[in-house]
Specification:
A 6-stranded mixed sheet has the order 6-7-8-3-9-10, sandwiched between helices. It has a 5-stranded antiparallel sheet with strand order 13-12-11-14-20. Strands 15-19-16-17-18 form a 5-stranded antiparallel sheet, with no helix packed on it. The protein has helices at about 45-50, 95-105, 110-120, 135-150, 165-185, 195-200, 220-225, 230-235, 270-275; strands at about 5-15, 15-25, 30-35, 60-65, 65, 80, 155-160, 185-190, 205-210, 210-215, 240-250, 255, 260-265, 280-285, 290, 305-315, 320-325, 330-335, 345-350, 355-360. The longest helix is centred in the middle third of the chain and has 18 residues, at about 165-185. It is of the alpha+beta class. The protein binds adenosine-5'-triphosphate and magnesium ion (MG).
Length: about 375
Amino acid sequence: MAQISLRDVKKVYGHKVTAVDNINLGIENKEFVVLVGPSGCGKSTTLRMIAGLEEASEGKIYIADRLVNNVPAKDRNIAMVFQNYALYPHMRAYENMAFALKLRGYPKPEVDKRVKEAAEILGITRLLQRRPKELSGGERQRVAVGRAIVRKPLAFLFDEPLSNLDAKMRVQMRTELHKLHLKIQTTMVYVTHDQVEAMTLGDKIAVMKDGKIQQFGAPLNVYNKPANKFVGGFIGSPPMNFMDGEIMAKNNDLYFAEGNFRIKIPKEKYLKLKSYTGKKIIFGVRPECIYDKLFASMATPDNTVRASCEVIETMGAENHLYLSTGKHTIVAVVDASNKPLIGSVLEVVFDMQKSLFFDPATEKSIV
Ligand SMILES: Nc1ncnc2c1ncn2[C@@H]1O[C@H](COP(=O)(O)OP(=O)(O)OP(=O)(O)O)[C@@H](O)[C@H]1O
Ligand SMILES: [Mg+2]
């Protein structure tokens, strides 16, 4: 069994708020798993149930093969780090980190050894004598992580630990958490609504919506093969483009017909799309799979459409082109040197090998 297992876990607040709706999740030993999804989707509730801070309404939670539904939080051997790190303001960093161990009656030399070890790992040795108000946000967050590390828990649970930090510090702390995980090789479950954090930190990510896990898998697998339209749109920035249209058959070929243009579908996708002939479908294409024909080698009349350039966002390393085509506005990520005139009409090419199709009724991925 996985090190942390959730089986048909449900959380209902009062009589009607279903915060978590029948979740099944297996987290292996030493794995870094990220729960990601929009606000209110049940991420924190899931984490708090693993920690024992919230009781599951239904289902079973196992930690290291032990059923823990009735085990109080303090006996689960799990450490949690929150967004508001809640350090004791009157204690120095050292005491903040030592506190939980002292409370549990660890001998002084052992406490000292653990605090110094953790401080070394986190690079905060020189800050140990400072009080929280004498530390920056990032340094405080490190102390909070240190407080968790000294306990040598079975697993770490993080609930949006970086969201109080400014953008630059967030990126830096993200890298440090990554390194920390490599160093201490302990299971981590990490909650965020930021898909970039999810993609970069997770060995696996669980994308949640409305209390349900939409997809669980390795980040690239989720990125390349989203289970449904929601996952496709949530993971990736700028988000995947979606266009409504229908599947059209002509001369033994299949096309996606938008109304104002049509594009040919690659042969290997025929089998799954054939039954949609004459029916509505949603076409999904990522911004980096759309090219200006002038810069593309794979252009054919079958995968090229005309689009007018409405807005350009220059990002430095790349440009985001907002293009109007047919009845849709789509975004393309192109090279920084590719800067068409606003209002000009360009021919854009879709990489149809990487295109996706979704059923409009279920929004599930077809191919
Ligand atoms: N104590 C509570 N009583 C009633 N409803 C609650 C309670 N706690 C959470 N909820 C509801 O449960 C749902 C899930 O909440 P949860 O805090 O798990 O979301 P989240 O995914 O962590 O969101 P966020 O990204 O905003 O932190 C929300 O609809 C929320 O309003
Ligand atoms: Mg939350």
